[in-house]
């Protein structure tokens, strides 16, 4: 952009050359035009020269031919503020024991590893708040270069449940966390801490949590956490048998719940959605791992269906309707046990239950004609439905 602006006229050129922040954002996306070696060298050199002394934003997806130019960026590590790196060889780019006084955002992609063992490179980064790192082997404690008491966003791959608990306990200001566990327990990093089985970690600031691939140790994770501020929860390829107890213990108020590729019976969703934490849900998405024979139990669909009285679900007057504040509902590869129940539930969400539901997305293999007739009828009436059939 600054190059284009500087060609408009001499006045704009003078303004561009005297405004370092215009040159301080260096982006090389995957579809960046192919340039010669000299052209790329000149491009990076000019951006660095004219941006000095402004803090740098680097978002780089480097093909191998551009690796040699990374040394130019390392010379300005003291100006790095927002850094996202993908595709570079560590030997070519990665500095060691350098200070990054302005660094607030650091994201290193998994593809960045290139089969190498990655160590945190900075001797200090005192204002770091956002950290996405492909391995869990990060130094903790008072001598760590990472200011754990400042971290607000943390994304880590290939860690164990006990490591995840330890990181949550070490970041008192953390508001968002994303943890991806190894598909095989033997692939994870070494255990940072062997936690007692009954320890309880309470994290008050965390409001968004994303978990991937908890196929072992889910009991330790969910039994050890209490997250009263949680409002966004996404879990994929995880066992969810302990989820209901975790939500009750946390006494949180969820806004968004996404449960994708779960292995257990869909019947377990009843216990989860019955928790007080789900009464505030505005967005709900459910999708089982087994996508050909999964069925929604009648009692769950009945609990989600209202006859107009929020205290009286269609099937019983003993409990309130589940999730009365839903705005978006997404169901994938789940069919009703009794034909027509799914369609009637969705109809009640649009027409009754405060009329809050704005959209319903349903992707299915085989579903009963009665349900489809109801859903397609709602679509013709102008309600927002997205109906898709797996081919």
Radius of gyration: 26 Å
> Strand arrangement, largest sheet?
1-2-3-5-7-8-9-11-13-14-15-17-19-20
Note the gap between the termini: 44 Å
> Biggest sheet, open or closed, and with what strands and sense?
14 strands, parallel
Overall number of strands = 20
Please bin the fraction of helical residues.
Answer: 10-25%
Number of helices in the DSSP assignment:
12
Structural class: alpha/beta
Hey, roughly how much beta strand do the residues contain? Answer: 15-25%
| Low confidence ranges | 187-197
* Form type: globular
Mean pLDDT, as a whole number? 84
Secondary structure elements and pairings:
Layout: H1 2-6, H2 10-17, E1 25-28, H3 37-51, E2 56-61, H4 70-74, E3 80-86, H5 90-93, E4 98-99, E5 105-108, E6 122-124, E7 130-133, E8 153-157, H6 161-170, E9 176-180, E10 201-202, E11 208-212, H7 218-223, E12 225-226, E13 232-236, H8 243-250, E14 256-262, H9 268-273, E15 283-288, E16 295-296, H10 298-303, E17 328-332, E18 335-336, H11 341-351, E19 359-364, H12 369-380, E20 385-389
Parallel strand pairs: 1-2, 2-3, 3-5, 4-6, 5-7, 7-8, 8-9, 9-11, 10-12, 11-13, 13-14, 14-15, 15-17, 16-18, 17-19, 19-20
How would you characterize the overall build of this protein?
This is F-box domain-containing protein. With 391 residues, this protein is an alpha/beta fold. It has helices spanning 2-6, 10-17, 37-51, 70-74, 90-93, 161-170, 218-223, 243-250, 268-273, 298-303, 341-351, 369-380; strands at residues 25-28, 56-61, 80-86, 98-99, 105-108, 122-124, 130-133, 153-157, 176-180, 201-202, 208-212, 225-226, 232-236, 256-262, 283-288, 295-296, 328-332, 335-336, 359-364, 385-389. It has a domain at 1-151. The chain contains twelve helices and 20 strands. The protein has a 14-stranded parallel beta sheet, covered by helices on one side. Strands 4-6 form a two-stranded parallel sheet. Strands 10-12 form a two-stranded parallel sheet. Helix 12 links the parallel strand 19 (359-364) and strand 20 (385-389). Helix 11 packs parallel to helix 12 (369-380).
